[in-house]
Specification:
It comes from Pseudorhizobium tarimense. The protein is an all-alpha fold. Helix content is about 55%, strand content about 0%. It has a single domain (about 25-135), classed as Recoverin, domain 1 (Orthogonal Bundle), CATH 1.10.238. The chain contains nine helices and no strands. The structure holds calcium ion (CA) (4 copies). One calcium ion binds near residues 34 and 39.
């Protein structure tokens, strides 16, 4: 009898700790919702939209990000950011070359950047970089 109560308590404590886990955590199995290996573009966008960096960095609330808005938002992580995406990241992401990154350009650019082998799917090892950049101390941890 006592054992049963203890088991129940342990189970509810476990459930609570799951709820308390940070919403930001980039967990491969949470993001991979369609059962097919790898994170496709729509899974990526759904997962990444839990992250507030785009809105936080958009200092003038224009709905787009200039290079300087991103650089201000990234702050001290600029070097690591450039190393991750390459020095030409802004031009690459700015598909229509209007000197501003729209939300679509942002997600497309990030997706392409994390898909290191360019096979149009983010495999679990590639996804490790997403987790690092969204985790504690990463530039998306805003
Ligand atoms: Ca998938
Ligand atoms: Ca803006
Ligand atoms: Ca643009
Ligand atoms: Ca890939």
């Amino acid at each position: 009898m006592l054992n049963k109560v203890a088991t129940k308590l342990a189970a509810s404590t476990f459930a609570l700790s799951l709820v308390a886990a940070p919403v930001m955590a980039a967990n491969y199995s949470d993001w991979n919702t369609d059962g097919n290996d790898g994170i496709n573009e729509s899974e990526f966008r759904t997962g990444f939209e839990q992250n507030n960096a785009f809105d936080t960095w958009d200092a003038d609330d224009s709905g787009t990000l200039t290079q300087s808005e991103i650089e201000t938002g990234v702050g001290d992580n600029q070097q690591a950011f450039n190393d991750r995406y390459g020095d030409g990241w802004f031009e690459e992401w700015d598909a229509d070359s209007d000197s501003a990154i729209s939300e679509d350009e942002y997600y497309n650019g990030l997706y392409t950047s994390y898909d290191a082998d360019n096979n149009n799917i983010i495999e679990e090892p590639e996804f490790g970089d997403v987790g690092d950049d969204m985790g504690d101390g990463g530039w998306f941890d805003v």
